[in-house]
Amino acid sequence: MSDEYRPDGHREAVDQQRALAFETLAVHAGQPADPSTGAVVTPIYQTSTFAQSEVGRHQGYEYSRSGNPTRAALEACLAALEGATHGLAFSSGLAAEDAILRTLEPGDHVLIGDDVYGGTYRLLSEVHDRGGLSFTPVALGDPAAVAAAWRPSTRMVWVETPSNPLLRIADIAALAELAHGHGHGHGAKVVVDNTFATPYLQRPLDLGADVAVHSTTKYLGGHSDVVGGFAATSDPEVAGRLAFLQNATGAVPGPFDCFLVLRGVKTLAVRMERHCANAQRVVEALIAHRAVDRVYYPGLPEHAGHRTARTQMRGFGGMVSFTVRGGEARALAVARSTSIFTLAESLGAVESLIEHPHRMTHASVAGSALAVDPALLRLSVGLEAADDLVADLREALDMAGDG
Ligand code: PLP
Known about the structure:
The chain is α/β, with parallel strands linked by helices. It has 14 helices and twelve strands. Helix 2 (22-28) runs antiparallel to helix 3 (69-81) and helix 11 packs parallel to helix 14 (386-402). The structure holds pyridoxal-5'-phosphate.
């Protein structure tokens, strides 16, 4: 991975000599000591407006929808982590997705993976569909299926890898090559939802994608205490349009939310290492349990996307899905029987969570081609001791089996 970003004005003498590694950028990028006070931590600029000495004369900020110093620090930091020249923060992952889809024109067509977050599907099928976009869910791991679904009007390929909830893997570089070669001279943009992987494990822009999008609610924030979104791109035209939309539609995060994500990101690298290690332990325990039918995890050699995951990710992540023998009733029994894994939506934080996608995160895909198996459970494996997590799951699976 290349880490080419150098934070402006911060320890310039050192930084200009060399590019900084991910861990260093996560702590420092976009966050010089506060120029007015020397505060080492970027302050929460909890202000809606900024004084002007005369009309149009100010210190770079006018109004906090258009720009705020805490948000600017977050945008610079996350852009650096994605290896992007531009980054835009939004009030939620879906707000970031909405802005990206608004860069398209009525009549444009979107190819989307056949396993994606339910809210993304709903945004396309119930919001942008009415605005004149059409879309086709397709198995993005199958080049022949992608080629068959391609239309002359296809302007965007929306890639969630690993996908939610089945942890499917798509080859970002192959899709970028395909997308950029198609179309009437200008091809299609490749957008990668990098929420599950995070830029620590996978950098879509390095692989040829045009935009990386995040729910910062998840691993980037990392502590289940904030809702936010982010889009990173090195395409100046896309960046300009997203910046316009960010201000024009106004779905911006507040300064305190930006501060929380900035703080979370400082520990992202060490958290992701432990998420991956704990997930591996959980996967081994699930495979060994008689009540478990199938385990979905890209780290498994038998996973269809394992080889691609090995080449484009530096670890397989903290998300694990599995089906139980005995169908939905047993899945629901397991979901209510864990004590360390909290039954809740969302993912990517220090505490472990369990959820039932069919009734919870993916209720909006019911009846569609993306409908989720009611026997499926999804785990967000947190940072507790692996032994405790494994014991908790074993107990819940045993109990549900006996009931
Ligand atoms: N993308 C993925 C992969 C998600 O799992 C989610 C939410 O669960 C989102 C996007 C939407 O993010 P948010 O809930 O911050 O709007």
